[in-house]
Amino acid sequence: MTRNEIIKPxxxxxxxxxxxxxxxxxxxxxxxxxxxHKLVAEIIEEMGLREKAIGISPVGxxxxxxxxxxxxxxxxxxxxxxxxxxxxKRLWPDRLVFTYQGDGDLACIGTAETIHALxxxxxxxxxxxxxxxxxxxxxxxxxxxxxxMKTATCPYGRDPQLHGYPLKIADIAAQLEGTAxxxxxxxxxxxxINKTKRAIRHAFENSMEGKGSNLVEVVSTCNSxxxxxPVKANQWMKENMVPxxxxxxxxxxx
Amino acid sequence: MGKIKGAIVVNTDRCKGCNLxxxxxxxxVIALTKEVNVRGYNYVQPVLEDACTGCxxxxxxxxxxxxxxxxxxE
Lengths: 254, 74
Known about the structure:
The complex is a heterodimer of chains A (254) and B (74). Chain A is 38% helix and 18% strand. In chain A, α8 (190-209) links the parallel β6 (179-186) and β7. Chain A has a seven-stranded mixed β-sheet with strand order 3-2-4-5-7-6-8, sandwiched between helices. Chain A is α/β, with parallel strands linked by helices. Chain A has one domain: Rossmann fold (3-Layer(aba) Sandwich), CATH 3.40.50. Chain B has helices at 20-24, 57-61; strands at 4-10, 30-36, 42-46, 67-73. In chain B, strands 1-4 form a two-stranded antiparallel sheet. Chain B is mainly beta. Chain B has two helices and four strands, in the order βαββαβ. Chain B has a single domain (4-73), classed as 2-Layer Sandwich (Alpha-Beta Plaits).
């Protein structure tokens, strides 16, 4: 069978989700953001919520997410996405409201908003991209930077005496009464991507059913910030990030 | 025969040459070329097309959604 005989519309098994448009993504080659964007677009498409989905974009690399996924978006002030999501969900209770935030946005400047929105049990989903570094501004130390990890602002490695300890947001969220589903996933391999997809879908379903707030932390890579190739960054993530940020569901309220 | 055959089409203008699909492919079907696209990135192309089973590994890991996968049962 020749290539031309296989390439026919009836044999199609995988294509870029239709909600993801053809705009060229500004992310560096191999960035985890692209994979998570693709998952979000696929899930909204599969759930048939194109007209009902409202996303809140963060300040950080993912600020331009509204250019890439064709649903309604609102841009929040730095770290204030969960507060804005709260307002939107309360005004439009039948909408799928989710935020998409990085670690600088969610775990640093927006910690208060995040924790209080989760604790109030707002029916929203927070997608948290944790790459342990400030990617957009050039690789500075983030609250989630690992111990001993070198960044532009801690060139000798993160020292607890000087910089404190890394923040485990998902572990904090799991302790809160208001959260329905808290999970930590990654997007480095095919099986991990499929698990993350199931996790985001479960979180979206929970928020539509009004079960409470949901947090999906995605342990990701920032190969430019880490100064590695995309493939090496995935390996580094598995060896260094996953032992500190163990993957799996932390809380799933029935 | 019941053999599963696959084929992939790469959107070469969108590809950034991150190499993640090359590592993800279990049959080494896809490889980075020396040519560059309009944006100056090396892009990937299928090189061992007969080995492709249409498993979608390359397309799943692609951060930019450049790969379309077709599969047929002979």
